[in-house]
Amino acid sequence: MGKDVIIACDFSSAKETFDFLDKFTGRKPFVKIGMELFYAEGPEIVRQIKARGHKIFLDLKLHDIPNTVMKAMAVLSRLDVDMTNLHASGTIRMMEGALKGLTRPDGTRPLLIAVTQLTSTDQESMENDLLIKEPIDEVVMHYAANAEKAGLDGVVCSPLEAGKVHDRCGKNFLTVTPGVRFADGDVGDQKRVMTPAEAKKIGSDYIVVGRPITAAADPVAAYERCCDEFIG
Ligand code: C5P
Questions:
Q1: Whose CA is nearest to atom 16 of ligand 1?
Q2: Using CA atoms, how far apart are residues 223 and 219, in angstroms rounded to an integer?
Q3: What is the position in ligand 1's atom list of the atom closest to the CA of 119?
Q4: What are 20-47's pLDDT values in tens digits?
Q5: Do 101 and 74 meet the contact criterion of CB atoms below 8 Å apart?
Q6: Residues in a beta bridge with 33
Q7: What is the pTM for the complete model shown?
Q8: Which residue, 147, 145, 144, 127, is CA-closest to 136?
């Protein structure tokens, strides 16, 4: 399982996305398609980006009853994405259903990654809104362990948590980490950040990088810099 840099294509239209991807004439980056672009353009955007030779992380964060998630995952699997995700809070049964749905008749399937607690959830909102009273770090690790138990491939987490997730769930359990910034770059609205080089040192398997690449004056150079720092 190779380390890779995934570009978060947080655009609202196919045009903007292709104007951006057209700049990459050499190496084809692994791209993340989120809810905004998927809901704007539908499954066709996935087929088009795939046809251009990119790997795709479809970031739709499914969460529903196990049967519904199983059937939805079967549809995503036919779209031939390389990685997709769901909420671990949907329970182990839901995650098992997702894996079943995602597995193609020939036994292959995209990587399946769990979101533990969203980074927008803090201790206070977890206790008051969700009535979960445990420390948030423990909740994150417990959800990661559930994902591993269900047979998933890894979790989305902060690069600061990647080491702990590997300690708890094993070295082969993947950590996909957003919140990456260049040492000399803008932090923006991300609170806990790491450079690509630091994320590599701490053992992240994939870094998800959006604005440091998409908003750069030279996105291709920024992407290459990320790859140099993270993959080497
Ligand atoms: O632009 P930036 O590098 O902050 O983009 C990070 C990407 O990772 C965005 O698509 C964001 O939604 C996603 N993400 C995140 N933090 C999480 C989960 C996902 O920043 N905890």
A1: 178
A2: 6
A3: 21
A4: 999 999 999 999 999 999 999 999 999 9
A5: yes
A6: 58
A7: 0.96
A8: 127
CA of 55 to the centre of ligand 1 (A): 18
Catalytic residues: 61
Is pLDDT of 1 > 70?
no
DSSP secondary structure string, 108-141?
Answer: ---EEEEE-S-TT--HHHHHHHH---S-HHHHHH
Q: What is the pLDDT of residue 190?
A: 79
Residue 181 CA, closest ligand 1 atom number: 3
Which of 9, 10, 136 maximizes ligand 1 atoms within 8 Å of its Cβ, making it the mutation to test the pocket? 10
Would you state the pLDDT for residue 186? 86
CA angle 177, 174, 54 (to 5 degrees): 70
User: 81-114 burial by CB neighbour count: b if 16+ within 10 A, else e?
Assistant: bbbbbbbbbbebebbbbbbebbbeeeeebbbbbb
Q: H or E element: which one contains 163? A: helix 162-169
Are 15 and 40 in contact by the 8 Å Cβ rule? The answer is: no
Long-range contacts of 220-225 (CB under 8 A, 24+ apart): 220/23, 220/24, 220/26, 222/182, 223/5, 223/7, 223/24, 223/29, 224/27, 225/182, 225/196
Distance in Å, CA 171 to ligand 1 centroid: 23
8-state DSSP, 21: H
How far, in whole angstroms, is CA 109 from its chain's centroid?
16
Alpha-carbon distance 161 to 108, whole Å?
29
Q: Among the atoms of ligand 1, which is closest to the Cα of residue 212?
A: 3
Residue nearest to atom 19 of ligand 1 (CA): 178
Structure tokens at 111: 């990587």
**Residue closest to 141 by CA, chosen among 127, 158, 124, 120:** 158
